[in-house]
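SAMPLE LOG
Freezer: B-3
Tube label: C17
Construct: single chain, 254 aa
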Amino acid sequence: MTADDWLIREDLGGGIGRITLNRPPVNALTPAFLKAFADKLDEAERDDAVRALVISSSFKVFSAGLDLKEARALDLAGQHAIVTALNVEFTKLFAFPKPVITVATGAAIAGGLFFVLASDYRLAGPKAGFGLAEVRVGVDFPVGPMEIARAALNPNDLRRLMLGGRPIGAQAALAAGIVDEIAEPDTIMDQALHAARHYASIPPLTFASVKRQIRGEVIARIEAAMANGANTPEGGWYTDETKPAMAAMIGGSD
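STRUCTURE (predicted):
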């Protein structure tokens, strides 16, 4: 499989587009994968026929976050590259002017959760799990994901997810407002399309304007931080704890 196959963009009819995450085995995040995703967003934004966008996964796991095996070997330039990608590409999704509906039937963990938190309507399968495991792998949060999480989560859920690093199930995510709906695997895409058709019926310029009213201050803070060096943290993203913590998470040795 090549990078061209990592994302599948489709027209589902009725003004509904879909981007399917398709980087095996668990849609692990790399700068190249995130950039490819952002390119698909740009295509959908330019396409006047797309009135709402669905994001889903080809696999049981929605996205497991960073590719830890690859991440353990990153030098300073590589660390800056992944921080830049997390900041830029998830901010692009958060600011996307059209409605975004995300369908997670499996785990959305660490960086993978930001596909969910940056979207406008979120559906989960009953076996889905949601978590922010960064603290367990020895890294803090780049400014983009941090500000998106602050905007999307209430303070207690932010505390529990970020400081504990443990995932929660679909029912707990529903109660917390992380997802809006739980649906069985055989009906979840139909329900996502139902939601997408509703959002597609909203006047598009008005939707984009209201979304910007809601999120504009957060986006401005992220963009200002990036302009002031947040994409290239001095000394890199990692500390002395990071690579041993990553090794422990994947069952290896450092």
